[in-house]
Amino acid sequence: MLTREDLLKPEHFNLKFFKQNGFLRQKCKKCGNNFWATVQQDECGDASCVSYNFIGSPVIPGKLTWKKIREKYIKFFENNGHQFVKRYPVVARWKPDTLFTGAGIFNYMPWVLNGSAKPPANPALTDQPSVRFVDIDNVGLGTGRHCTEFSMLGHHVFNSPKQIYWKEKAIELCHGFFTSELKLPLDKISFVENLWKGGGNAGPCFEVMSGGNEIATMVFMEFEDRGGIYSPMKMKVVDPGYGLERIAWASQGTPTIYDSIYPKVIKFLRKEGRIKSYNKKVFEEFCKLSSCMNVEDVNVEEERKILIDIIGKKLGTTPDEIMEQVYPYHNIYRIADHSKALAFILGDGVVPSNIQEGYLARLLIRRALHSIRNLGMALDLGTVVEQQINEVKDIYPELDEKMKNILKMVESEEEKYKSNMKNASGNVKKFQDILLRGGKKKFDKKSFVMLYESYGLNPEIVKEHLDLPSESVTALDIKEEIRKNLEEEETRKKRTGDYQSEDQLAFLDGLPQTEILYYEKEDLFNFEARVLKVFDNLVVLDKSGFYPRGGGAEPDLGTIGSAKVIDVEKKGNIIVHTIEGQIDSVTVKCSVDMDRRDRIVRHHTGAHVINGACQRVLGPHIWQRGTRKGANKAHLDVSHYEIPSPEQIRKIENISNELIKKKVNIEKKVFGRTEAEQKFGFRIYQGGVVPGEKLKIVNIPGWDAEACGGLHKNNTSEVGKIIISKIEKPHDGVIRLVFRAGPAAEDWLVSRTNILKESAKVLGVKDSDLPKAVKQLLTKWKTLRKRLEIKNKKEAADLAKKIKSEKVGSIELVVQEVDGDMKKLQEMSRTLGNDNTFITLFGIGEKISVFCSAGKNVNINAGLITSKLCSDLGGKGGGSPTLGRGFGVDKSKLAKIKDKIKKELIV
Q: Less Cβ around it within 10 Å: N or C end of the chain?
């Protein structure tokens, strides 16, 4: 076992290449890191040790664009024996421990690195668009170099079972690309020694620096990281990461990285915002000094003030004059950066929402819209996103193909944002009133965070509408809370996959794995097996044809001997059957409920059919977010930004049934992971991450292909007619399609027909006249209900007038027991209530209705008291600080409860 110090020993970094090419090993006088350079120098070249000295003086000649550098990179490494691999999505759906693809090596984690899959090429050449949110507050004039989305160039080598090349060759190629291909002067490059770790792996690395700009990191992954204790990996991996945008910046020498990669978009934003040109000398000086600012360690706003003060004194200008130039560009750069990131994130299938990837997409949209608002521009964010797609569509045509869909999602989110801004004053006042009623006299940090997360209102906007004094809450504080949320989202990433966890039950120890019969013989419903163990009502057999619960599908039921099978689960490689009854012998005859199996399999296959239909009708952003397949009905959850129209639902249903009528053969075949990804693309992970070397792909040719371990029909015609019976919205950004297929659909239609016939019979009309009769009945009912409401309101008001309040301190207390329901209690409260009343009403009926309300000047939480009262009465309740509702069941405690309100809760 090795420690960090072992991995940083000189032998890991003393390369023959350095010595043969005139590099000297030196120690930085500022940070203390060792580095290699061809000239004697005091600093290693890291941004924290030396300011950006290439700004205004490019170190790479030719003012190369990022596209030109990309072209040169691919050509150089293809000429040196590397095979180009098409980009992976920026959403890491194959990776179980993260949401977004944060670097090129993510493409091969964990499956290639742990030996479960072959690399798509070796050595592999990549240009991987990557997304990182951890540096989001650096974007803009934080450091001038951080991007939410960026391209990570890499030439990856997987040295197993044989070594292709290692450190010497990798550094030689890196050096050759920069100095020979890009003509970076030899004395402008340094290689800083460091340790890289991530994803459970680690290794020595060289950070390639030029003028304060880290243009590449050469990682040599050769150790497993066990909490800071390291052991050798079976595979040694060359993992370089070349920052495409940073290299372009070094070639153009612009003040910030954004000026070099988004010149057209920035020009457009300047024109739209009528932003003046900056003073080049002032701006460049500011950007050079910004290189030393690390937002991880400092308060950005305070540090920026210090920088501006330094520059002002140096150049003889005032801080206000500097801020007047700097602040607009800070917002312009953020809009440019976030719009590009959104093009990839939304284009790769993320729908903005309040969870996981969707939460982060929404966060980006809000930040970009805030910046547009800060500049006072009448500009749609979608216009900027469209420009970004047009800029990259020659390299990433898939974004152009999905542009219409991407812009729809941006437009939908922008409408929500504008609505939130329109209602900002009311939402702020609502939170403020809650604090006041709770006895607080300052607007607290928690409320700032809640307003941001709920309505997208940042602290500056909130303060515009506050009457209360507030805690000192800045964007940095909000950032910290968001950072925690991001970490939580990354940690608790969960996908619905067609596989089971490996958790074991103690009684399974020592048992062999179960021989599975349901894959090889899906029509095998009767078999004999040997009983290996019985524990309470749990049974393990040597072989089983019972399909276990998993992948959203309910399990097979049936019999084992004379016992009923009521549940089946897979624990690791062992199938466990839950039974009712007794097992009488060692060898048992088993029978699977054939009809139930058929219905569930129809629904499982139908989910694939509907998923493909949703993609065609609603858009390419559709991804499965959950599913449930039972015998009588099923549902499919998919990502979508709005409830589909009735016309869209009908179309999904119709084209699903058209596919069923076409009698398309369904292919079920096992592939190696990499082969499956290359053949079918990453939509195979519709059901989430699937572990293992081999993937079972269920393919409806030209329609839907997924990695899925469930049981499926052999032909679409075997699914039977599909009926979508209901649409729900389980949470933001997701819709649920409840459906039935085959016999379950027929049963549903029969039940609906019977309901219609019975309804017509009750109303004494023909079936065909039922709609007309129902309409007439509804009109009469509404009229009678209105009359009854008026009558009840009058009775409630009359009763309320007879009730007198009791003075308790400054509060007018009303505690009353009446005959009536919750509506009557509400009406009475309206008559009784004023700013100084606290009202508790008990409505006596089959249950006890409990209603509490607190006036504006009453410092009592009505919802909390309602909860306590209902609990004491054996029921449940709750509500807001001003209003509470609930119920109780124990009438014997009512007298004591009423007395408790007066004596304990008020006094």
A: N
